[in-house]
Design a protein that fits this description.
Bound molecules: adenosine-5'-diphosphate, magnesium ion
Largest sheet: 5 strands, antiparallel
Shape: globular
Radius of gyration: 19 Å
Helix content: 25-40%
CATH superfamily of the largest domain: Transferase(Phosphotransferase) domain 1
CATH architecture of the largest domain: Orthogonal Bundle
Oligomer: single chain
Strand content: 15-25%
Number of domains: 2
Distance between the termini: 54 Å
Strand order of the largest sheet: 1-2-3-5-4
CATH topology of the largest domain: Transferase(Phosphotransferase), domain 1
């Protein structure tokens, strides 16, 4: 009997303990269902891709497998490099699920809405740089895909990320973030400048050319403005 993380029973039918014990559904999104629980006794998150009725089943399956695979590969690389991120614990690309460590803390969205202290965006910029400096892009950067933990801001949701990103993908991450900040956090007009300040801090620490990414972001922004 294959291991089914969605099975609420902790003991599997063959009498073997499942390492995964579900606790609660915490999010039902357009593409995924997220369940909190534990993995071998540690707080963990199970993310299952749900099928979209409006898509062709075959395409749907291909896309969800691609996203699980991307997320697993990226988490694994970040873990290996010691970059602050959820730890990859288990995954099944065929069945379309992934289990990672739970990051404790509110989302950046709710922290900002609650009137966060001044320099939290600088922290976000630093976290983004640490991912980018590994050559990885996020692909869906919003304040909902960032958790404010005691260790710093942890980015999550790498299903649209790229393990080997081009400069354009890195620039687009800053651009999506900018759009999100403009749309949802207009009460903090300095937010994007602070992100960039954090992103460019400590330029010699990792040998990464953050300036080139910011320049690309500026040119994407003027391109978009021109066509708007
Ligand atoms: N590793 C994690 N630790 C804590 N919360 C998480 C974790 N992963 C996801 N979540 C929670 O579940 C929500 C949805 O997860 P996410 O990976 O962003 O899925 P989706 O693709 O549906 O946006 C997040 O906004 C966050 O609140
Ligand atoms: Mg998300």
């Amino acid at each position: 009997m294959p291991f089914k993380p969605s099975n609420p029973a902790v003991v599997m039918p063959n009498g073997i303990w499942s390492p995964w014990a579900p606790a609660a559904v915490i999010h039902v999104g357009a593409e995924a269902e997220v369940i909190s629980g534990s993995w071998i006794g540690r707080p963990a998150i199970l993310k299952k891709r749900v099928s979209r009725g409006y898509r062709h089943p075959k395409l749907d399956r291909t896309l969800s497998r691609q996203r699980i695979y991307a997320e697993g590969r990226i988490l694994s690389r970040l873990n290996e490099r010691g970059i602050l991120s959820p730890k990859l614990l288990s995954m099944d690309q065929e069945e379309g699920w992934i289990i990672m460590s739970e990051v404790k803390g509110p989302t950046l969205l709710s922290t900002l809405e609650g009137g966060a202290k001044g320099d939290i965006e600088v922290e976000l910029g630093k976290s983004l740089r640490s991912i980018h400096s590994q050559g990885i892009s996020h692909g869906d950067l919003t304040t909902l895909n960032a958790i404010v933990s005691l260790d710093g801001i942890v980015l999550i949701d790498y299903g649209l990320g790229r393990l080997v990103a081009e400069l354009e993908h890195l620039g687009l991450d800053l651009h999506s973030l900018h759009e999100c900040l403009t749309a949802h956090h207009s009460d903090r007009p300095e937010a994007m400048n602070k992100v960039i300040q954090g992103y460019l801090l400590d330029p010699d620490s990792d040998g990464f050319d953050g300036r080139a990414v910011v320049d690309r972001f500026e040119s994407i922004r003027s391109r978009v403005r021109y066509h708007a």
